[in-house]
Amino acid sequence: MSDFDRRSVLKAGLGGAALLAGPGVVPVRAAEWTNKPEPNASIRVLRWKQFIQAEYDKFAEQTKKFAETTGVKVKLEAESWDDIRPKAAVAANVGAGPDLIIGTLDDAHKFPEKLIDVTDVANYLGAKYGGWYPVAEKYGKKGNSWIAIPQGATGGCMNYRISHMKAAGFEEFPKDLPGFLKLCQNLKKNNTPAGFALGHATGDANGWVHWLLWAHGGKLVNEKNEVVIESPETIAALEYVKQLYPTFIPGVLSWNDSNNNKAYLSGELSLTLNGISIWTVGKNSPDPKQQEIAKDTDHAALPIGPVGKPTEQQNIVIAYGYKYSKYPNAVKEFLRFMWEKENYDAWEVASNGYVAPPLPAYNDNPVWTSDPKITPFRDCLKRCLDNGYAGDLGYASAAVMGDFVLVDMFAEAATGSATPKEAAARAAERAKRYYQV
């Protein structure tokens, strides 16, 4: 968030009990950890499917290291984000399935009563490493207890072709919405278009439509969880997208989270919202064309709207364990082990900065300054709002996100299948099914 400061981190993770260390210094405090896995424990871990192979390989390597160190057997599985969501809900409902899931956003808030209390893990890590980002704490906590441990965010930034941006009349990436629209319009004129997912893409589509709504001052709900999407600010955002959509490559209405990656690396796109995976895959590709595209690629934070501050929505990834697990201590030990800085840092390096860290103390990882193209991803949690904004995270916010209510609203307005007023009214009607039950 724009008002993020050292004090807010302390409040989130330490209650103001200590000061963060200076730049480049990891604030390590004495933190007691007494948990021990159950004898002969065996756990099943389901996590999100990789976009960068080296990231998954390092995670699997460290999982093996955990098993060898603790004696806990671990079965590691991976599924797409869209497949994890229903499986997580089914596991909660039937009381069987993976012991631990690393999923997305506020899914854990759909069934908090079914989850292992991981407050001790969160407090241990927060105390040892200087406190959590406030937005990470909001995703991890329900009331005064932690129901999930944030892994970070598969941070989204603007991915753009440097030469195409300059050919469109811009020496640097625009920092405001009028400049952003002009860039997209000029890219279209030059036959080097932009493309943003408007299909049911968990990360990419939700990311940019929430940003654009919030950037104009619109929001789905207010602080009392009342649906307020039918507002002048929302209409302004939808009028803006009506101008923006014609600059997009055809087909975005059916895109999932992988389509823009493929289109960008095939040379069809010059601008999209994505994590660092496009650039990483391109520069490591054996294909010379993809290598050239990666060399011509840079990244930027999302432009600021009329509200005058960052309003990004990032794809937060969170880990949560189920109470039905026979080995809850083993689940907590796995979380503690994998989140220890030495292990997290090694995983971050392998992923090339694909996940923005949930603990600011992890920002000193040299991967973030190893290349200036990586650095914009480091502060994603500093710039973002939670997807329940401006209300609470819970069943309603998770359900609205899972139902792609705002994505569909923007798609309807962008394509002209509904007027902005009609699209906002339909979104309000759908949202009230969840917020007024």
TrEMBL record:
It holds the Pfam family SBP_bac_8. GO terms for cellular component: periplasmic space. InterPro entries: Bact_solute-bd_prot1, SBP, TAT_signal. SUPFAM superfamilies: Periplasmic binding protein-like II (SSF53850). Keywords: Periplasm, Signal, Transport. The keyword DNA damage does not apply. It is found in: Periplasm. Belongs to the bacterial solute-binding protein 1 family. This is ABC transporter substrate-binding protein.
